[in-house]
Design brief:
Blueprint (H helix, E strand, L loop, with lengths): L4 E5 L9 H16 L4 E7 L11 E5 L15 E4 L14 E6 L11 H17 L2 E4 L2 H10 L7 E3 L24 E5 L21 E5 L5 H13 L6 E5 L3 H10 L2 E4 L8 H8 L4 E4 L4 H5 L4 E3 L4 H10 L1 H6 L4 H9 L3 H16 L1
Parallel strand pairs: 1-2, 1-4, 2-3, 4-5, 5-6, 6-7, 8-9, 8-11, 9-10, 11-12, 12-13
Length: about 350
């Protein structure tokens, strides 16, 4: 497969500190390394910085192109990286690969009108696609249950691990936390279910560090209100968004990584923590049992009484228990962007032959 014009949609990279930003950044980089002999472009917001290595080629994205589309007739393949995208070409010449990350809008209390609107968008993009990719088997099952595939088969391609081996060596200075701490990272909103985490601090002297962009300020206030009401506010630290180096530092030094999300397509932070050989404590919702596997620990309930009991009677023993760190790291090592990119590239070749 040579001399083909391929567009990889990185429009969502205009939103930093999000899972979609990192998906586009890491997969885009790995695909670019495979693209020799082809005309490979990033469809990138015209105001956003150019994040890829020197020599990368870009097509500027503008919001008006939702309505007045550029001439995409000479493009051989378009990779749509967001299930609600408004920018997919609509001509029979261009082959389309569509990655669907989740149907979380079905699970987080959206209005029936909003759910219907989003489902129509997803369905429209599935109809345009020649190949549909889900990032986990959990997402694949959702697509099959809620969308009309018209005979198309959903491929599953897992995300890679964002941990940079060189940056892995950073963060060797001593932590400012004086006791062991538990750590989580993600967009601060209700679907991440972070408000149950302060209950894990009851009956022990652990600290809780929550990092990530605050998408719902009222939800952040709710977490802090709970912490205050149960007497652990002095041990709950909300950092806001952090750099990759800061994230590595927290992952390296935390006593336990916790991730209680109730709506997740993949849960990449889980794999990042496991790459450090860390114990991870997850909810049993959505894809997390699939991604954490037998090497993770799970909360069997989100009820306050259960989580408080876990904090009082189990969490310290879990932290001090022995695990096979090499086995945990090996589990995480199966998720690589190089492997993901090769599987996507195989789809490209299949469509363009």
């Amino acid at each position: 497969m040579k001399d083909k014009k391929i567009i990889f949609d990185t429009e969502r990279m205009k939103y930093h500190h999000t899972g979609l930003y990192h998906f586009c950044a890491h997969l885009g980089k790995a695909l670019m390394n495979l693209s020799e002999g082809n005309d490979f472009y990033f469809y990138h917001n015209h105001k956003a910085e150019h994040p890829f290595k020197e020599g990368a080629k870009y097509i500027d994205q503008y919001s008006y192109q939702k309505f007045i589309r550029p001439n995409f007739k000479k493009i051989d393949l378009w990779h749509s990286t967001f299930q609600l995208s408004d920018y997919i070409p609509r001509n029979s010449h261009t082959k389309v690969v569509a990655t669907i990350h989740d149907l979380n809008f079905l699970k987080v209390g959206k209005s029936s009108d909003r759910i219907e609107k989003y489902l129509k968008k997803v369905q429209r993009n599935i109809d345009y696609a020649d190949e549909v990719v889900a990032i986990s088997n959990y997402v694949k099952n959702d697509i099959e249950n809620y969308c009309n595939l018209n005979g198309k088969e959903v491929q599953v391609i897992y995300n890679g691990n964002n941990i940079d081996v060189e940056a892995y060596q950073l963060g060797t200075e001593t932590s400012n936390t004086r006791e062991d701490f538990i750590f989580t990272i993600g967009t601060v909103n209700r679907k991440k279910n972070m408000h149950i985490l302060p209950y894990l601090l009851l009956g022990n002297r652990l600290r809780l560090v929550i990092s990530g962009i605050v998408h719902e300020p009222e939800y952040e206030a709710y977490i802090l209100e709970i912490a205050k009401n149960i007497g652990v506010a002095d041990r709950v630290i909300m950092t806001g968004p952090i750099t990759e180096e800061q994230k590595y530092k927290y992952l390296k030094e935390c006593a336990l990584f916790v991730f209680p999300s109730i709506a997740e397509g993949f849960g990449l932070p889980v794999i990042e923590a496991m790459a450090f050989g860390k114990k991870v404590l997850l909810s049993r919702h959505t894809c997390l049992p699939e991604i954490g596997g037998d090497h993770a620990y799970y909360l069997d309930s989100d009820e306050e009484d259960f989580v408080e009991d876990f904090g009082r009677n189990r969490i310290v023993d879990l932290i001090h228990s022995q695990i096979d760190e090499s086995a945990v790291r090996n589990w995480a090592a199966q998720f690589t962007w190089k492997s993901a990119a090769q599987k996507y590239w195989n789809l490209y070749e299949k469509l363009l032959k």
